[in-house]
Amino acid sequence: MQPRDPMPMSAATAAVTDVYLFGTCVIDLFMPRAGLDAVRLLEREGVVVHYPRGQSCCGQPAWSSGNPAHAREVALAQMALFPHDWPVIVPSGSCAGMMRHHWPELFAADPVLAEQARRLAGRVHELSEFLLNVLRVRYPAQAQADEDVVLHTSCGARREMGTRAHCVALVDGLPGVRRLEHARESECCGFGGTFCLKHPDISGAMVTDKVAAACATGARRVVSADCGCLLNIGHAARAQEAPLEVEHMASFLWRRANGLAAGEEGA
Questions:
Q1: Measured between alpha carbons, how far is 245 from 47 in angstroms, rounded to an integer?
Q2: Interatomic CA distance for residues 132 and 140, integer angstroms
Q3: For the segment 67-80, what is each residue's pLDDT rounded down to a tens digit?
Q4: Which is one Pfam family of this protein (predicted)?
Q5: Does domain 14-134 have CATH number 3.40.50?
Q6: Distance CA 110, CA 113 (A)
Q7: Which CATH number fits domain 147-257: 3.30.310, 3.40.50, 3.10.110, 1.10.260?
Q8: Do 104 and 114 touch, CB atoms closer than 8 A?
């Protein structure tokens, strides 16, 4: 499957002063630090970040499970939370893909809601592409140890959002960081939302292969822009007693940009 063509972005991104953050349910429940670090990265560039209360899920679990009615209900509850014409930043390639590409599909039968979904979809940015393309960030060298890392790109980020190149550019632009590659780079980790629950044996085999390939590079850290994948890879690494840590892209960028060691949060 080839990456989708990028959707034209709103003109509001020309001079960004304010953005919304859609934190995602996985970050909210399991990796809140990734959300906080996403805010810190944006504020570091002088952007005011607004986090609407009441946000929950993008609807992807229901959509990928063949339940569009429930996905519409969930998506509709989120759409009302972003009334201003500001970019909506999503620290997840899979959730951003759902919002940008599938929300308009969900409401295709209702012209009014379809137009609302289309307009909102045009303001959705995955965090990495926004940092690179809009804010054009550069992170200077800091006094910290060199690191070897493996970059994992989720299926949604790679094939729907086309943001692997953005993540590669950000990681490769960090002084003291060496990105190592392996033969299973383009393979799914086996998470797939509800896939890992419905097909645990298949999912387990997929992530076992992914962990083994990452470890074979000699790197001891997997960085990804998707928390679902990190949860899956991290759990498998612990189960296998593999010497592999996982870290969200936002947290990794924030840490390296501020000269922090692994585990340090900074101000």
A1: 30
A2: 15
A3: 999 999 999 999 99
A4: CCG
A5: yes
A6: 5
A7: 3.40.50
A8: yes
Q: What pLDDT is attached to residue 11?
A: 36
- Residue 20: enclosing H or E segment and its boundaries? strand 18-21
For 2-15, what is each residue's pLDDT tens digit? 344 433 333 334 57
Cα angle 123-5-120, degrees, rounded to a multiple of 5? 20
Query: Phi/psi at 134 (nearest 5 deg)?
Result: -100, -55
User: Which of these, 3, 121, 5, 113, lies nearest to 58 by C-alpha position?
Assistant: 121
Place of tokens 């979809």: 121
Give CA separation, 145 vs 56, 177, 217, 253, 256, in Å.
37, 9, 19, 14, 10
Residues 6+ apart with CB under 8 A from 142: 175, 176, 256, 257, 258, 259
CATH topology of 14-134 equal to that of 147-257?
yes
204-213 confidence digits (pLDDT tens):
677 888 888 9
Please name every residue paired with 223 in a beta bridge, in sequence order, or none if there are none: 151, 247
For residue 127, what are the contacts with CB-CB under 8 A and spacing of at least 6?
Answer: 38, 41, 89, 90, 91, 92, 225, 249, 250
pTM tops 0.90: no
Query: What are the pLDDT digits (tens) for 171-181?
Result: 999 999 999 99
Distance (Å, whole) CA 131 – CA 113: 29
